[in-house]
Amino acid sequence: MPDNSPKLVPALVRGVQVLDTVAKSKKSLKVTEIADLIGVAKSSVHGICMTLTELNLLVKKSDHTYQLGPHIMRWSNRFTHESDVATEFASIWDESSSLPGATITLSVLEGAEVVYLAARNAELSVGYSFRIGMRLPAAFTATGKAFLSFMSNGEVRRLLNDQIPDPLTENSVQDIETLLDELEVVRQQGYSIDNQQVKMGMVCYGASVLDSLNRPIAGVAVSLSADAISEIGEKVIVDNIKEISKKISFRLGAEL
Fold first, then answer.
1. CA pair distance 109, 136, nearest whole angstrom
2. DSSP state of 110
3. Do both 27 and 127 map to the same domain?
4. How many Å apart are CA 115 and CA 137, to the nearest integer?
5. For the chain, what is the domain count?
6. Which of residues 81 and 222 earns the better pLDDT score?
7. In degrees, to the nearest 5, what angle opens at C-alpha 78 toward C-alphas 58 and 97?
8. In the chain, pLDDT over 90 holds for what percent of residues?
9. How confident is the model at residue 184 (pLDDT cuts 50, 70, 90)?
């Protein structure tokens, strides 16, 4: 059978391997250390590092170790400028969602609230319509909890002034300690749940979208009726939202 795999340029591949290795390291690396980590001869790595240094992609320090160079910031800044999380959200949802009857939303954190950037409302959201520009308390929403889970407990307390907003439903979290307990669960399982805290009968599952520094830049959530969850299965829903958040994060440069 014909080999349809792309033909890669070995020298370029090794150059990228060197850059990735230096980027991932918590300290500057010597040529010998880089060679050992990527499994390439020291002489080859030495030549690659010299070339990357001349191109300002690496910087050689006085102790003969290497760190990333300033030229990479030009690419990073350009990538950030051209990346549109809302556009990525729409395209990925259209191409990969396995929950056509669910509502999915994209939001960002502003202060103690989430603001909705995009929404696809559908029948399984029990008649609740999310609107672009809508604001809801982060403490009650799935995407809000996903954002807050990246903060320390102290940061959450300061953001909320140690107070919980007025409840939206009887299920809305009532005190800061309960919220902190919920956030610890989110950190452990990698996704968040709004179990009828915004609207009775509606359950939302959320996950964070990460940027190129692996920081939360947005949150995505799937919203369905409580009855629909039992029919579809929670695992299917969770897998779907985690996969979508992962795909958007990857396109935005996150290291997953």
1. 10
2. E
3. no
4. 9
5. 2
6. 222
7. 115
8. 53
9. very high
